[in-house]
Structure formats: C-alpha cells, structure tokens
Design brief:
- A hairpin with a 4-residue loop joins strand 4 and strand 5.
- Strands 1, 2, 3, 4, 5 and 6 form a 6-stranded antiparallel β-sheet that branches.
- The chain is α+β, with helices and mostly antiparallel strands.
- The radius of gyration is 19 Å and the shape is globular.
- Helix 1 packs parallel to helix 2.
- It is built from 5 helices and 6 strands.
- 38% of the residues lie in helices and 27% in strands.
Length: 193
C-alpha cells in the first residue's frame, strides 16, 4: 500500500515540478521507512527496484510521457533492469533518485537511476529498459518521442556500459533458457531423479 502513496506523490510532484526536456534528469526525494527495511536493518534490495519505478513515474510525468499515454491509451512495460549496490540506506535516511534517459532504440527506452544520499554520495545505481504498448502492439519509440514533442533521434552513442549490460543480458537469458529446457526434459526410464 505504501508504494501507492509514493506513486501518487511522484505523479503529483511530476505535475507540479514543471516540464522537463527528455534529455533532462528528474530528481525524486525519498526517506527510508520501517517497511523498507530487511532483517539486517537496511533498505531491502528489492525495494530499490520499486523505488526506481516510482522515480521513473515522476520523470515520465515531467517529460510528458504520461500525458501522451493517456491521450493514446498506451501503457508502459518494464523490459529489464540491473542494480549495483555500494552503500546501505538505513532507517529514516533521506535520499534522492536522479533519473535520466540514456538512449532509445526501435522499441526500448533506457534509463539510469542514481540513488544519492544526503552527503551527495552515490549509494546505488541502476539501469532499466521500458517500452510502450498500445492496442496489443509495441509502440515504436520514435512515435512516443514525437508524441511528447521531443527530438526524433536518440543520443548518437549509447554509453558503453549500456551495450555491455545488454550483451550480458542476452547471454544470461540464453543460458537460463538452455538450463530450463534441460531441466524440463523427460528423465531416463528407471531414473530416480
């Protein structure tokens, strides 16, 4: 339930925060609450991914993506993400998440999320990939970009770490599929396993 309040606040902050260009970063402010903690007293690793969703909501609202989604009856879907944790966030600690668009291709928008504590230290960083769907199909990224009134061309070069992540993701998915198909094969007759 608490995430719904955070989403509502992010949406309202997005509406009141002023319009951003798609190349601008949005900063969302948060505090670590009791329900964010794990058994070790710091923010749960899964909560970072949820907070990235909330921060992305504020960025999408300020850039105009949500307005375009309402007009065209589109929906957004997350296609993957990765997080690197460096330092812990503890109870009642204030932090912010800086969200910015890195790149886009035919289907996907790639966003970076930097978790920054009160001292300005980056405590975690993540990258997500999101796409837009409408009428059961993927909406081409250039159509989404045009709908928000932005430039039609992505940044000319994707950051090298983004390309590395995508390559690693492809290899991971292929390995997982191979493992899953091996695990689903019928056992040999007479085998106990």
């Amino acid at each position: 339930m608490n995430l719904y309040f955070r989403l509502l606040r992010a949406y309202l902050n997005g509406l009141m925060g002023g319009r951003l260009k798609h190349s601008d970063a949005a900063e969302s402010r948060f505090r670590v609450w009791l329900h964010d903690l794990d058994a070790f007293g710091h923010m749960n690793n899964g909560r970072y991914l949820q907070i990235m969703d909330v921060a992305r909501t504020e960025w999408m609202t300020r850039v105009g993506v949500f307005a375009a989604m309402r007009r065209h009856k589109w929906s957004a879907l997350l296609g993957g993400g990765v997080v690197r944790y460096r330092y812990s966030l503890r109870m009642l600690q204030v932090y912010r998440v800086r969200t910015r668009l890195l790149h886009w291709d035919r289907r996907w928008f790639y966003l970076e999320h930097a978790f920054i504590d009160k001292s300005g230290r980056c405590v975690a960083a993540g990258v997500t990939r999101a796409g837009i769907r409408g009428n059961g199909n993927w909406v081409p990224a250039v159509q989404v970009v045009a709908a928000v009134g932005a430039d039609a061309d992505p940044p000319p070069v994707a950051p090298p770490y983004l390309r590395t992540w995508l390559k690693l993701e492809d290899e991971l998915f292929a390995a997982a599929e191979a493992h899953a198909s091996h695990a689903c094969q019928a056992p040999n007759a007479g085998s106990l396993h």
